[in-house]
Design brief:
It is a single chain. With 306 residues, the protein is α+β, with helices and mostly antiparallel strands. It folds into 2 domains: 1-166, no CATH class; 177-299, Glucose Permease (Domain IIA), CATH 2.70.70. 40% of the residues lie in helices and 25% in strands. It contains 5 helices and 14 strands. Strand 9 (234-242) and strand 10 form a beta hairpin. The radius of gyration is 42 Å and the shape is rod-shaped. The N and C termini lie far apart (116 Å).
């Protein structure tokens, strides 16, 4: 007789056991099926556990990413604020360099360029953010550019300081403040259409609109050269500041100084009016250096009229 493997199942100890005969192939098949079922159970268990761990990590990552996005937005806002402040410094730097008889820094030099090597890691970090407005690589470039601009301004201010530290009398005689503490520029320096004739003409100063009676101040130390009137400019004051500088104030309603008076920077000399050839109350202001008209906006290192 062939040898058989048997499994004995005892249903009740008081009765005779029931015997079932299984071949070796059946036993192997049953074992294999059992192993497969156990494997499936283990795989399902691992997947369930992995999903639990994954979702837990996703929640933590989303929380951390939210904090990171907030930090990056705050950094971006601070960079934009720094850019605005550096722009103001650059404008004042231009006025100060004019004030110190130094050449204005060329625009191409101010741009400086970003330069440097592109960092692949920055691009990889950018992929962590779904918001297209957030680019770590762009922020890195902005910080690099701001660092260069700040360094340029520091060098420029050192040059200005060295140029003016031994020239106190000349500095006091150089126009450098606004002639009004209020008002806005209604016409700038350069070509414009004449408001009366419509003909395109060069405007040799700036027109600052302000209410009649607004105080007008001397923009540098000097001596009043003349106070007179004309059909075009109305009441006029001309001040000689020395070192080639002279200023011109027109369309005045009232003149407080007279020829020969010595004036100081910031001293009230007149009041705004609408005299002469004028459509509204305003001050016409000019700066001349050795008889050549200059743009007054280049001499406002204490601020600009809006």
């Amino acid at each position: 007789m062939k040898r058989q493997s048997k499994i004995v199942l005892v249903w009740n100890t008081k009765k005779s056991p029931k015997l079932f005969s299984l071949s070796r192939r059946q036993i192997v098949g049953l074992g294999t099926l059992t192993a497969i079922l156990l494997g499936i159970i283990v795989i399902i268990g691992i997947n369930v556990f992995s999903d639990i761990v994954y979702h837990s990590k996703v929640i933590r990552l989303r929380k951390n990413n939210s904090k990171l996005v907030g930090t990056v937005y705050d950094l971006k806002s601070r960079i934009q604020q720094m850019e605005s402040e550096i722009k103001v410094l650059a404008e004042k730097d231009q006025a100060l360099r004019t004030y110190a008889d130094l050449p204005v820094i060329d625009k191409d030099i101010r741009k400086l360029g970003i330069g440097g090597k592109y960092n692949i890691h920055d691009d990889e970090i950018d992929k962590l953010f779904t918001d297209d407005n957030i680019k770590i690589s762009s922020l890195v470039n902005d910080l690099d550019r701001l660092t260069r601009e700040i360094k340029l301004e520091r060098i420029s201010y050192e040059e200005i300081y060295n140029a003016v530290k031994h020239r106190s009398p000349q500095i006091k005689s150089t126009p450098s403040i606004r002639p009004l503490n209020t008002g806005f520029i209604s016409d700038g320096y350069g070509y414009r259409r004449d408001p009366f004739s419509g003909i395109r003409q060069f405007h040799y100063g700036i027109d600052i609109s302000a209410p009649s009676g607004t105080p007008v101040y001397a923009t540098a130390d000097g001596v009043v050269r003349s106070t007179n009137s004309s059909r075009t400019y109305g009441k006029i004051i001309k001040i000689d500041h020395g070192y080639g500088y002279a200023t011109f104030y027109a369309h005045l309603s009232k003149m407080i100084v007279k020829p020969g008076d010595v004036v100081k920077r910031g001293q009230k000399i007149a009041e705004v009016g609408c005299t002469g050839r004028s459509t509204a109350s305003h001050l016409h202001y000019e700066i001349r250096q050795f008889g050549i008209n200059k743009n007054p906006l280049d001499y406002y290192f204490t601020g600009y009229i809006h």
